[in-house]
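My hope is that you will study the protein record below before we discuss the fold together.
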Amino acid sequence: MSTDCLELCGRTTIIQHSQETPVGALAVVDGGGIIPRQADSDAQLIELWLHGRSRHTVRAYRADIQRFLSHVNKPVHSVTLGDIQGFADALEATELVPASRNRILAAVKSYFSFGHRLGYLPFDVARVLRLAPTRDCLAERILSEAEVQRMIMLEPNPRNETLLTVLYASGCRVSEISGLRWRDFQPREQHGQITVFGKGGKTRSILLPQTVSESIMALRRGRGEDEPVFRSRKNKPLSPSQILRIVKRAGRRAGLRQNCVVHTFRHCHASHSLDRGAPISLVQSTLGHSSVATTGRYLHARPSDSSSRYLPL
């Protein structure tokens, strides 16, 4: 029986190789106990890594890691830092924007880190990979109040007009709006309230103005609690891709040169409410940001003051 050392969960452990231990089922001796190997293949490691994540994250991460594995075309145990850097260089040659390239590389780093923590990989070769700094383009994605209002007012379909209004008024993510059911909406005196299940498994309630609440109620027409608020012609919830098409059409109809996406309304909600004096903690709570620093990016994207105003110009 031979032994090798590796770092598992921050501790030095010993892997024992014996004739009785088949490949793919190595045992880890840790304080006298024997822990079976957690994954038997690269494919199984992917499933363990993705388990419990949102379906949107699973779809994106699975595509990212499969893209990487197809590029290196070798088992994960054989991947070197040079292979990963070569993949990063190959991404540079694509038409992907820097933020998208960094997202893919971040997924690769997460995968290798998970495999190392689990004891499947003896080293985290992706740990030292540096992600290229990216330019913050948040300011470019924020529309003016007049542009948002034009998108809403020029929408001829009542359902879609209400959808655009709720996106702006709530700052919700597309998955939160797509999953909205009538049981999640509660009319209140002079207000309305929606409860959404959002990113990170967090549930939050959002107060809406009376005009928005009345627009939502006009869509109900006796529908049951479990039916979607925004439904398709087949009486199913509008999918994220359907909502995206509605937003894109609204942007073109309003004559906007900017490529509008659903998240545009979330950016606008944050920026416009802060411009009008909303407390940053309230905006953070409404949008479901885990850190006030994330909300604070909107203050820097559209500053209300600048030292240049104090210069003799």
Notes: The CA atoms of residues 284 and 291 lie 8 Å apart.
